[in-house]
Design goal:
Largest sheet of chain B: 6 strands, mixed
Number of helices of chain A: 4
Helix content of chain B: 25-40%
Strand content of chain A: over 45%
Strand order of the largest sheet of chain B: 6-7-8-3-9-10
Order of helices and strands of chain B: EEEHEEHEHHEHEHEEHH
Shape of chain A: globular
Shape of chain B: globular
Distance between the termini of chain B: 16 Å
Largest sheet of chain A: 10 strands, mixed
Strand order of the largest sheet of chain A: 2-1-5-7-9-11-13-15-17-19
Low-confidence stretches of chain B: none
Oligomer: heterodimer
Order of helices and strands of chain A: EEEHHEEEEEEEEEEEEEEEEHH
CATH class of chain B: Alpha Beta
Low-confidence stretches of chain A: 1-7
Radius of gyration of chain A: 20 Å
Number of strands of chain A: 19
Distance between the termini of chain A: 28 Å
Helix content of chain A: 10-25%
Chain lengths: 309, 238
């Protein structure tokens, strides 16, 4: 049994947004950082409509116009049974601003049969820099479908770390990243599974001259899980990119399929990939057991090493 | 009897249907340093792994008694808890785990690192040189505070300076602290530094000879090869 902890964001009068089920539990803006429920942003700022597409029902809008020395925080929680969230999120980092965001999505209990759909757009304007740390902790019966699109304008930088610490029953994770001129992307995904069906599709478009992108995928196949991952990189402009995709099967009942795909449309670009799938090495296990670790302790240690990227 | 730390009786072991150990007998006393010499593929490393409980090998006959307890079917980690340890000849690399992290996890008490400090913040055995691997193995062994240590080819691939360092660590931190040591070697280089109490020669999965004078045995092997050991009529009978 997984143990879903009650994840509460840090709320010390710093820019943050916390939604429980469909209710905004806490929201706080500070000077230079505007935080609103997405429907309010739609009404207040006409320009957001281009990004939202249609009027959002729920979700958050964060507009970073000033640099601060603490991370922005958003938290979306499912706390009641059979809740179906349909979020539209928008995060905009203004020109030349550096920011860090900690984003947590979670279920309060293990068996809530919740649905969490999130469409998000994250805009990094010219010279902006964002470290986006995205954590998921779900219950065993949840369906989760994040669909995020990032726009990296000229000279901007994105570090995107995603981890599903506790996997739901169904996870469909779709990510598109558009890299503009001289922008850089460093994406790290750690995909965990346990009695789960997981579909991951990340697409990186190297659209601007001298754009750079690195994608690192780590897939963990635990008990009765099926992971399908497709990691694609398109070199459209003269650019450089690399895909590093690795999967580890921990249980015999797990299955992983992995497709790294490179599509090069520009002769002056260079994109590469490395990919591997395998089980835990018997030799490594035997070695650690001769150091006094139990089989479980040894597996945990090997897995923790595998996830360090 | 009380003085016997490890007693192996008529041990037969197979791996993938091939019988590797064919009736092994071995006794090691507390505080004793013994050597196991033998040609390649004679079963020396297999014996070490079997003593430590590697699940790859199946014991089909015989017993392993350690500290008076039958450990023949005991899990590897439980044998380690009882006081057994082993330095691997070719230890695997563990990606993402720093040596300092592993040492912290396995140490019985705070370890005084006197050698190999530069290895601590590197991933265990990842891109370690031959000499670095040996130092790393010894640090891990010292962290376990064992009663009996099996050193599998601890002297292979070391230059003379590294060999001296490794031998010094074994002598000062293990032998002089009254731990028992079983040195597995086919070159015998390290024996001049450690001066074992007893030397065993192993051929085709069996110990065929034991003697006290390691220099004499090494001299014969160097001059005539292991074939001479097979024909030796003066070897002490077990």
């Amino acid at each position: 049994m997984k143990n879903v902890k009650d994840v509460k964001p840090v709320l010390k009068n710093k820019a943050n947004f916390w939604q429980i089920d469909h209710r905004v539990e806490n929201i706080f803006s500070i000077e230079g950082i505007i935080v609103l429920p997405s429907p309010d942003a739609w009404e207040k700022f006409d320009w957001t409509r281009n990004f939202f597409g249609e009027k959002p029902k729920e979700g958050y809008f964060v507009w970073v116009k000033k640099e601060v020395d603490f991370p922005l925080s958003t938290c979306i929680t499912i706390a009641s049974p059979k809740i179906s969230q349909n979020l539209s999120n928008l995060l905009v980092v203004e020109k030349g601003i550096r920011a860090k965001a900690n984003v947590v999505c979670s279920a309060k209990e293990n068996n809530l049969y919740g649905v969490h759909r999130a469409k998000g757009k994250i805009i990094l304007k010219e010279g902006a820099s964002l470290e986006y740390n995205h954590f998921h902790r779900w219950g065993q019966k949840d369906f989760v479908n994040p669909d995020y699109e990032f726009f990296l304008r000229k000279n901007s930088r994105l570090i995107y770390n995603y981890q599903n610490l506790l996997p739901p029953e169904n996870l469909e994770l779709k990510t598109k990243i558009h890299c503009g001129e001289n922008s850089s992307l460093n994406l790290k995904f750690v995909i965990n599974s346990l009695n789960s069906k997981v579909k991951v599709n990340d697409l990186v478009f190297l659209e601007g001259k001298n754009a750079q992108g690195i994608v690192r995928l780590r897939l963990l196949g635990r008990e009765k899980s099926e992971i399908e991952a497709v990691s694609q990189m398109f070199a459209i402009a003269p650019s450089r990119g690399h895909l590093d995709c690795q999967g580890l099967l921990i249980e015999k009942t797990a299955k992983i399929s992995l497709v790294p795909q490179l599509i090069c449309q520009n002769k002056d670009s260079q994109i590469t990939h490395e990919a591997s799938l395998g089980k835990i090495s018997e030799e490594e296990l035997a070695y650690l057991r001769t150091r006094g670790l139990t089989e479980k302790e040894a597996i945990d240690l090997i897995v923790s090493g595998f996830l360090i990227i | 009897m009380k003085n016997i730390l490890l007693k192996i009786t008529n041990l037969k072991v197979k791996s993938k249907e091939k019988e590797i150990l064919q009736g092994m007998n071995l006794q090691i006393k507390r505080g004793e340093v013994q050597v196991l010499l033998g040609p390649n593929a004679s079963g020396k490393s297999t014996l070490a792994k079997v003593i430590l409980g590697n699940p790859k090998y199946k014991v089909i006959k015989g017993k392993i008694i350690f500290g008076g307890k039958d450990i023949t079917n005991l899990a590897s980690e439980k044998r380690v808890k009882l006081g057994l340890a082993m330095a691997w000849q070719a230890p695997p690399a563990i990606k993402g785990i720093k040596l300092s992290q592993l040492l912290k996890k396995i140490s019985k008490e705070e370890l005084n690192i006197f050698e190999g400090k530069e290895l601590l913040e590197r991933d265990v055995n990842v891109d370690f040189s031959g000499g670095e691997k040996k130092i790393s193995e010894l640090l891990q062994i010292l962290a376990l505070k064992p009663k009996l240590i099996i050193l599998d080819e601890i002297d292979s691939g070391l230059d003379i300076k590294k060999l001296e360092i490794v031998a010094k660590i074994i002598k000062e931190k293990l032998v002089e602290k009254n731990a028992s040591v079983l040195i597995i070697t086919h070159s015998g280089q390290i024996l001049n530094f450690l001066k074992p109490d007893l030397v065993n020669v192993m051929i085709e999965g069996k110990i065929i000879c034991e003697a006290k004078d390691f220099r004499k045995v090494l001299g014969i092997i160097k001059k005539y090869g292991y074939e001479k050991c097979k024909r030796c009529e003066t070897r002490p009978k077990k």
